[in-house]
Every structure is written in structure tokens, then in C-alpha cells.
Specification:
The chain is mainly alpha-helical. The protein has one domain. It is built from seven helices and two strands; from the N terminus they run αααααααββ. A two-stranded antiparallel ribbon has the order 1-2. α1 runs antiparallel to α2. The longest helix has 42 residues. It is elongated and about 60 Å long.
Length: 194
Amino acid sequence: MILFLVVFCMLVALGFGVASGVSDFKSMTIPNVYALGVLLAFVPAFMADAFSGEGMEFFASWKSHLLAMVIMFAVSFVLFSTRMIGAGDSKLITVFSLWVGLSGLAAFLFYMAVLGALLGIGTKVMNKKVLMASPREGSWIAKAQAGGNGVPYGIAIAFGAVIAFWQLGYFSPEKLALLTGVVEFTENQPVELE
């Protein structure tokens, strides 16, 4: 039961991440409900792991997750205040940082930054060259072709989150098996419980 709850919550969080990327691409906005969905999906997943009777095996400690969120809230707030990112980007970065904790923060930020840089380069290219004859009004492509500098960072944030989840082992059968209570790891080797 815990396994299904945690996997469901992860898929909900990533689904909201993908929806954020699509929304950012289409309208250069990320609705608040998407960040709220990512946040609310974390709570039951974390609580299920914490109170499973086996102790924290899937996620890191609550301090790690909370500290990652606080750090990224502060950093993204500064970036928002200097108009480097939008408010929706700031909120989405903050809530996905809660999911990845301190141990996944470097991967999350690195892959988010790499794709963000590529999107930024794409924006600059579209500032100089028309790639689509009639893009959807208000979309990233329409704004970039009109000379705008905005980047749909929601796409990069969702991408960074997926890679961080993967690197943390959130999708690995071995780590997911911990949630069943049937397997535990001793020195990185699975041991079946009787």
C-alpha cells in the first residue's frame, strides 16, 4: 500500500511539473495550483515512508528536504526579485527542491540549468530568425520571435526534477522495494526479510 501511495504521489508531482512546462511554453505562465499540487503530493508520500514502521528508507530526513526547500526559496526569491525568473518558476523550483532534498539538489539544479541555457539560446535564435510563420499568440515562440527575452523555465524545472528523481533512485526497483517492507538494504545489497 505504501509503495502505491508513494509512486502515485511521485507521478502526480511529475505530472504537475509537465503541466507547468506545457503552460509555460504556451503562455509563459505557471499557475499556482501546479506548484501547490507538487507540494501537496509530497506530504502523503513522505509521511507514508516516515510512519511505515521501517523508518525513513526511501526519502532522506525531513531536515534534508526542508532545508533544500528553504535554501531554494531564498535563492529563487532573489532571482525573482531581480526579474531573472518569474514567480511561478520560483514556486516550482522551491517545491521540487522539497522533493529532492539536499542529496538531489545538485542534480536538480545542474540539469535544470543546462536545459534552461539551451532554451535561452533558443530564445536568442528566435529573436533574430523567424522559425514559425504563425505561432500561437502569447506563446514562448511568438514572444521570442517578437524580440522578447523570456524563457519557459517551467520546462527546464520539470526536466531537472525528473533527472533528480532518477538519480536519487526514486524509480529504481531496488529502492521502491524498500517501501514494501519485504526488502531492506545492507551495505547496498538487498536482503529479503522473512
